[in-house]
Amino acid sequence: MPAEIRTVLFDLDGTLADTAPDLAQALNTLLVEQGREPLPYAHIRNRVSHGATALIELGFPEVAGDGVAHLRQRLIDLYAENRHLETRLFPGMEAVLGWLEKKGLSWGVVTNKPTALTEPLLHMLGLDGRAASVVCGDTLENRKPHPDPLLLACNQAGSAAAECVYVGDAQRDVEAAHAAGMPALIALYGYISPDDDVESWRADSHINEPREIVDWLLSGTASLRKVEL
Question: Which pLDDT tens digit goes with each residue over 158-205?
Fold first, then answer.
């Protein structure tokens, strides 16, 4: 771990905020529209971090080509109508963000979620005026696992890549962070499938709850004094 971290960057779905309930509701609404049975929430939750296309593949495994694109757009429309009914920050995350701000550390969001869905969600959560950087899936030509979104977020926050850490819940998050030259933490509380071989992702550390981000920072940042969250 670097001697000093100045910026913490977060994936959105499954790391910063628990968006799965609203996304699952959108998918099940679409399934019912198409004359199909809804899926159990637990079956949907582990696929949320992989985006809308992955959810369509889950609900409509036999559909291909233009059919996927059509259903994907309908899913996005349904989600956009009700994207903040049950979405909340993960328990303990607000305390972590407050601690970072109190200590003078910046934080930001790097997500593959499109801007039109991300910005209203951050506003609803009261985070849009607090984040030092927000990079969405359509901000640049490249998305994670490419490092460009993370490097742009570092630039927006005024930090070098080596002064940042990225927290996510998917293999692409680790790949993007390491390609950008920063450590990566895996949020085990996020949308990780039991079939995922998390150890093979080679993250720098695993966290079981948001407050462990603070513990990780304190373990290698001498200038931060430990305080209770």
Answer: 999 999 999 999 999 999 999 999 999 999 999 998 889 999 999 999
Tokens of 130: 């607090």
Residue 193 near residue 14 (C-beta atoms within 8 A): no
- Selected catalytic residue, list 11, 13, 22, 173: 11
Identify whether the C-beta of residue 143 lies closer than 8 Å to the C-beta of residue 168. no
User: Is this model's pTM higher than 0.70 or not?
Assistant: yes
- Asked whether the beta carbons of 106 and 155 are under 8 A apart, the reply is no
Paired sense of beta strands 164-168 and 205-207, if any: unpaired
* Angle ∠(160,161,167) on CA atoms, nearest 5: 130
Distance CA 129, CA 136 (A): 16
Q: Is 11 a catalytic residue?
A: yes
What digits encode the pLDDT tens for the residues 127-170? 999 999 999 999 999 999 999 999 999 999 999 999 999 999 99
Contacts of 187 (CB under 8 A, 6+ apart): 11, 14, 15, 167, 168, 169, 207, 210
- C-alpha dist (Å) from residue 160 to 5, 146, 178, 215: 9, 17, 14, 22
CB-based contacts of 204: which residues, under 8 Å, 6+ apart? 1, 165, 183, 184, 185
Residues near 6 by Cβ (< 8 Å), separated by ≥ 6? Answer: 105, 106, 157, 159, 163, 164
